[in-house]
Amino acid sequence: MSHTVTAKKTKMVEHVDIFKRLLPLARKGPSMSLSEVGEFMALTSELFREVLVAAGFDERQILRLTTKFRDACRRSAPWKPTSSKVPGRPQDGADGNRINRWLLPKEHKFYADEKTATLTEIKYYYQALSMENAPSLGNKEFCKSLVWLLGHNIEPGAYRDPLQLVPIDLKAVIDDASRIQSGHLVPLDRGGKHEPKNTFLMLKGSNALQGNYTVDELLNIMEQIVNRHKARKK
User: Fold this and answer.
1) Please, are residues 111 and 194 in contact by the beta-carbon 8 Å criterion?
2) Minimal CA–CA distance to 135: which of 215, 224, 47, 219?
């Protein structure tokens, strides 16, 4: 037996072990305790990296994407006017002017308790694994177990940009993580909460288009614009 075949079988055994630990937690749904959510997060991160590396993606690019997920979910956006290390700049890449969301005052718009912020990050991992050209996880039972969090099964192509309703190519996202951003159905400035039911990954262009509108408000505005243009052509 070749070394390559042996390595592949070893990875398959490791994945089976991860799924055995993930599935009972996934079945608990939002009733998971904080420590269980932490365990779920660690296993998810491990599975994500291993599956993508096995599919031929570069580990450094994967790390850039997972760092983006962490900064968008458990960490806040820059929350002070300027960095504490580089005056006049919102962040400097070292301290990033970011903070764990649960350390902020509860009334702060970036606040989220630790469990909620971590569940949001978990959601982003599996949204990514539901993008076009994502590798299949190969475990049907587990892929059906997170509908309570995602609203769909974990399968390539199941997730679409929530505004344009177009597929998002995971290969393109891993090549350039700036293609996607974290969005909110109801913006935080408008009273929306940083929680799984209000958060999603979206294309950068869609996020710019949404601005500070809710998705419903934007769709209504777009419909009115289209109708006015149609009326003008008559």
Assistant:
1) yes
2) 47
* 151 is a domain residue: yes
Structural domain containing residue 77: 3-176
pLDDT at 83: 59
Element (H, E) at 181: strand 180-184
Is 222 inside any structural domain?
A: no
Contact present, 203 and 159 (Cβ < 8 Å): no
Q: Identify the DSSP state of 167.
A: B
Counting every residue written for the chain, the total comes to 234
Q: How confident is the model at residue 82 (pLDDT cuts 50, 70, 90)?
A: low
Tokens of 83: 């960095």
**pTM of the complete model:** 0.87
Helix (H) or strand (E) holding 34: helix 34-54
As for how many domains the chain has, the answer is: 1
Beta carbons within 10 angstroms of residue 147's beta carbon? 13
